[in-house]
Amino acid sequence: MDRKTFLIRLAVAAAVFVGLCFLLRVLLGAQLFSFYGVAIAGLIVLVPLAQTLFQRARNTGRSRWPSGILIAVLALAAIGQIGFWLGFFYGGGLGTNLAVARSMVGDLLANYLAPLGILSIGVLLWIIGHLTR
């Protein structure tokens, strides 16, 4: 895969993600979209994104490990988001325990969530920049 094809595929993946977010927002409504929407769209787009990153790494002779680790972390975060809210709303008594645990963990991690998000974006941009050369 050449550089131009790689960048086009990344742009298409980003456009599909944004389009899915808009579509899911309309279909699910504001409240359900805030719980599930971005995670669902992210999981759908992760498959072609992973394929694009792996193929470009293979074609340029670079390691696929950084891309694989990032894809795995993003997938686990999306699955965790969906699983949490499914357990919260449909888990019966589990919902109360999840709410308490979320409150406790949220207080501990509140200062680290923004830096972790920025770090994830930075790693993704580094991988894309590394594979664009």
Model description:
The protein has 133 residues and is an all-alpha fold. The protein has one domain. Helices cover 92% and strands 0% of the residues. It has three helices and no strands. Helix 1 crosses helix 2, helix 1 crosses helix 3 and helix 2 runs antiparallel to helix 3.
Throw out a few tags for this protein.
mainly alpha
Shape: globular
Radius of gyration: 17 Å
Could you report the average pLDDT, rounded to the nearest whole number? 90
Distance between the termini: 12 Å
- Unreliable sequence segments: none
Q: Please give the largest β-sheet.
A: none
Number of domains: 1
Helical proportion?
Answer: over 70%
How do the helices and strands follow one another from N- to C-terminus?
HHH
Structural class, by secondary structure, is: mainly alpha
Number of helices: 3
| Strand fraction | under 5%
The count of strands amounts to: 0
What is the secondary structure topology, with strand pairs?
Elements: H1 3-60, H2 65-90, H3 94-132
Helix pairs in contact: 1-2, 1-3, 2-3
A few lines on this structure:
The protein is mostly helical and 133 residues long. The protein contains three helices and no strands.
